[in-house]
Amino acid sequence: MPTDPRLTGANPARAAMVGVSDFDGVLRGKHVLGEDLSDGDKVVKFSEAVLAWDCTDRVIPASFTQKPLSAFGDADLRILSGTGRSVSHLGDQYLYLAEFTGPHENICPRGVLRRVLRRAADHGYDCTVGFEFEFMLFKENADTIEEKSFGEWAPLTRGPFGYSIARSVAQHELFDEILALCEKARLPLSGLHFETGPGVVEASLRHCDALEAADRATIFKSMIKAWAQTRGMMATFMAKVSEKWPGQSGHIHISMSSDNQNAFYDSDACGNVSKLMRQFIAGQLEYMNEFCVLAAPNFNSYKRLVPGCWAPICPSWGVDNRSCAIRAIPGEPSAHRLEYRLPGADLNPYLALASAIGSGILGVETGPALPASIVGDASAEMCRSSARLPQSLSEATSRFAESAAASDVFGERFVEAFSCSRRWEWEAVQHRVTDFERRRYFEII
What we know:
By secondary structure, the chain is of the alpha+beta class. Helices cover 32% and strands 19% of the residues. Strands 7, 8, 9, 10, 11, 12, 13, 14, 15 and 16 form a ten-stranded mixed β-sheet that branches. Strands 1, 2, 3, 4, 5 and 6 form a six-stranded mixed β-sheet that branches.
């Protein structure tokens, strides 16, 4: 009996996975068999429940659907034929991205980003973006992390050794696999190295069109986690794995162009920072506290945003200053850009980028004053309670839910739905009693 070609990978476009981002930036999907998904965008039915689940598949009670909890039906899902790529170093595992359309488009993370990019395009600007991620590798699997306490988990490497050539050479087989996997998946990297912290690797994705960059970032996170498991490891993109180590960032590099010219660059301006770039940065700073939850969407995110951990603690900007929330990076017109340093690696790429660009475009439209750039440690110079970023997921969610600017940029329905999901996330975690609390208080208090 001949083998079904759909099971051999002979035509992966006919036996592909389809994935769509939920609010947490996690790809949810399934295999779709028998149709050539490379032949134009197709609309299929897919459960709307993925937009009402938290990261543990619990249904958020006050969900966007306004239906009884048992009534979740199917929604229209547009499969994006141009996004197909191989996502495994073991054979032909093919993936197409998708996005919700119809009534759900305005709460779909990819749809929210497209809304923001249309607003930039209305002003005549295109956005070029590159993501960079820090992630941690542990020599564990899904069973051992349940069986062992955290202190017994074994990271890939011991202790901090950022930019280590020795470790890169010693782990060249793993790095070679990551590089080959990304090349095969059309996720070109511009850098890959060990970062400070045990088992921490940083990968910089090459810059491209903004929507494509968010697509690549979303695929990259899921692909690295899957690849690690095939190697008997676990990869995590948590913002803060331990209070003993620095957090893991998800920085975003952004430039704007008009008529194929870098609109952030002005050869006659100080530091080559153009008027548009100053307006853009001013908007990012002005609305950073209100939009913060889009870049720091989890309870754990706020454990990274503390002094001394290479993360911002307040809205601030500086020229080539890594202590600031926004780092202006001067260079030739082809490289002149800003780095949005607020997000951790736990970001949803679509929503964090929507926040970074949406706030910048508001600055172009409304013209808020740009504060003086920071020279030196931004946390030392601006560590005042009135200037601090939100201190918790609860505070950030409240600011976002009450923000008229957020409703204007992202849409009222999305603001309501996402705020609901973040309140649920806060309530799911804040009542937990930790081992640290028991050790600190049990005997003494």
